[in-house]
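no rush on this but wanted to send it before i forget. theres a chain ive been looking at and ive put its sequence and its fold in token form underneath. please have a look and point out which stretches look like helix strand or loop to you. thanks a lot i owe you, the record is right below:
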Amino acid sequence: MVIKRKKREDSRAQLEFSFGRPKEKDRNAHLGGKSFYFFDFDDNVVYLSTPIVLFHKKTNKEVFVGSGEFAQENKRIGKSGPYADYYLNFDDLTGSFRYFRDHSFGLLDKIVRKKQTFVQDVAKAIQNAEYDWKAPSWNCFYHATFNNRPTSVITARGHDSDTIKEGVKLMVKEGHLPHEPNFLSIYPVSNPEVRVALGDKELTSSIAELKRGAIRESVEEAIRIYGYSPHHRFGMSDDDPHNVELITEEMKTLKRKYPEMSFFVIHTHQDHFVKEEVLQHKLKRKKKSQNFEQVALI
């Protein structure tokens, strides 16, 4: 199994596709195939300000860190570096990731139409300049939405899927998306019910392992809904290196099961991305010079 790689630099400030742009046919539509787009959300499609909470080992004092800093420091938390004296608390209600979970609202909250933190953070983000909140895969997400490609959101968050949809609807309402995506599936893999559905009955699997299972289920769901075609194309974009590693392994497994289909992994990071196609044989394919929008598409 080999991987074909393409890399291109691009700034974070990405322009939206024009609303007057004609819809594009799926590149394999004439062969009966479809392209399926799978996205991680945070720091991949959108930059959100949702904080992770660290707790001091002695005083339990809380320190808030962003997802970008957490990605850099998480392996050292409690061991070395600036957060050597802190720890992670995994309680969904009061712990480190409480803002990445939904919470039950009382009657008063419902009366004033209080929103879940994800929806609040999306609303806050899209009030800023576009280059502040549009992450590397935004153009690809917009393209998939604009052209009604079957789309899956596979995120480490633990919200209900309806909460994710509500946040995306807000982007539609504010004119950043032309309409709602053609959702194939939504997997907030830290949600306990989602974890169990993915086979993690003991709630012990890592986020990367859960995302791997969500990809597998999404591919099978695509085939159930749209039928089998050797010309189907599947791509997943994510910004976390460890997630990308296991995502790639899952794509290799799927390639062995469906050797005629095409599978892609897109690793996004700050101002660039690396696109990899999983190939079954050691065959070199001709590389074409493409602009960012074209390279980002599967």
The longest helix spans residues 207-226.
